[in-house]
Amino acid sequence: MRKLLFESLIRPPLTEPAPPVSEAAMTELAAAIERSARRRLGRSLSIRAVDAGSCNGCELEMHALTNAFYDIERFGLRFVASPRHADVLLVTGPVTRNMAQALERTYNATPDPKWVVALGGCARDGGCFAGSYAVIGGVSKVVPVDLHIPGCPPSPMDILSGLLGLFEDVSGEGRVS
Questions:
Q1: Tens of pLDDT along 140-170?
Q2: DSSP string covering 69-95, please?
Q3: Is residue 131 part of a domain?
Q4: Of 49, 73, 77, 125, whose CB is crowded by the most CB atoms within 10 A?
Q5: Which residues span the domain enclosing 136?
Q6: What is the CATH number of the domain that holds 80?
Q7: Is there a contact between 152 and 121 (Cβ–Cβ < 8 Å)?
Q8: Nearest to residue 69, comparing CAs of 147, 11, 17, 123?
Q9: What does pTM read for this prediction?
Q10: Quick one: average pLDDT of 3-16?
Q11: How far is CA 165 from CA 1, 13, 46, 93, in A?
Q12: Mean pLDDT of the chain
């Protein structure tokens, strides 16, 4: 035990390098989302995250949007605690049998206009959990989905690009993949 303690004092910490994302590109992308949200809603965008049974990989990337590097709140995008305050439901993971009713009730509690975004491969079709006795399948089997953001897990920039694509849908009626 003593040896581990001394070694930890000598060795530098193991950290990953910062993501290779251009600050200008991220700023422009987030600003475009804010402009689109204000044009369609008249205010900033409120997002409610719903974990329908995931492995938490997508949640880590989704919550990275609020860290000091991405800091999406400076653009008016924010995560809210209640579906009654949300414009977008950001659903991760395959829908498990235990979470199907909760997801449906969350969808019904969200006021119109609302959009549902299935985040990651598992939310799209069940991913590697498809066919399990405990999994119903993708989010679209329980609630209508407006946008699928692929990836396992998708990067924060992919999530921002997907949200922009949600608002750039010209008709406002169609589903985006």
A1: 888 998 888 888 888 888 888 887 777 665 3
A2: TT-GGGGT-EE-S-GGG-SEEEEESPE
A3: yes
A4: 77
A5: 43-171
A6: 3.40.50.12280
A7: yes
A8: 17
A9: 0.73
A10: 73
A11: 52, 38, 16, 21
A12: 79
